[in-house]
Amino acid sequence: MGLNDNTGYAEYSGNLRLENMYEIVKSISFCYGHRLLNYVGPCAHLHGHNASVDIKLASENLDERGMVMDFSDVKSVVKKWLDENLDHTMLLSAEDPIIPVLEQAGEKFYVMEKNPTAENIAEYIYEFVERQGFPVVDVTLWETSTSYARYSR
Questions:
Q1: Which stretch of DSSP H or E encloses residue 67?
Q2: Starting at the edge strand that comes first in sequence, how are the strands of the sheet with 109-112 ordered?
Q3: Active site residue: 34, 49, 123, 143, which one?
Q4: Cα dihedral: 40, 44, 50, 53 (round 10)
């Protein structure tokens, strides 16, 4: 394994990887409800999940404390946003016909431009984390203990 042409990348079993990359992962749990439009199966009906999201951050360098980032900084920003926007909330597509019913009943819901699949929710969380200036690599949304979706760029 050696550096290739001063690129800062090293050959590793046929793949390229950055040298001296540090990574951390912060896991945060939350609950949400949703249903999928244009879907045949149980997930076409309103239902909920006890989910967990893994937020992976990376940096080539550590800060003055020897950290990529303090876990508590990630938690304080991301968990607050999750609690205010997604936790114990129905996540619905903007096209979902149940929205007026929930509005009239005063129920809490959040409208997504896309179908609220695990993949799209992971992307949505990734975009929030990135906008906060965190060095996000990927976001993994565990919809159940055996099923997850991951988003990265």
A1: none
A2: 109-112, 89-93, 22-34, 47-59, 136-142, 148-152
A3: 143
A4: 70
State the catalytic residue, choosing from 88, 95, 107, 130: 88
Task: Clarify whether 88 is annotated catalytic.
Answer: yes
| 136 contacts: CB under 8 Å, gap ≥ 6 | 55, 56, 57, 126, 129, 130
pLDDT at site 20: 82
Spatial separation of the C-alpha atoms in residues 92 and 46, rounded to whole Å = 10
Pairwise CA distance, residues 142 & 153, whole Å: 19
pLDDT given at position 12: 43
What is residue 16's predicted lDDT score, i.e. its pLDDT? 57
Q: Is there a catalytic annotation at residue 43?
A: yes
User: What is the distance between the alpha carbons of residues 4 and 16, in angstroms, rounded to a whole number?
Assistant: 9
So what's the pLDDT on residue 18?
53
The pLDDT of residue 15 is 54
pLDDT in the model for residue 7: 47
Task: Name the stretches of the chain with pLDDT < 70.
Answer: 1-19
Q: Cα 22 vs. chain centroid, distance in angstroms?
A: 19
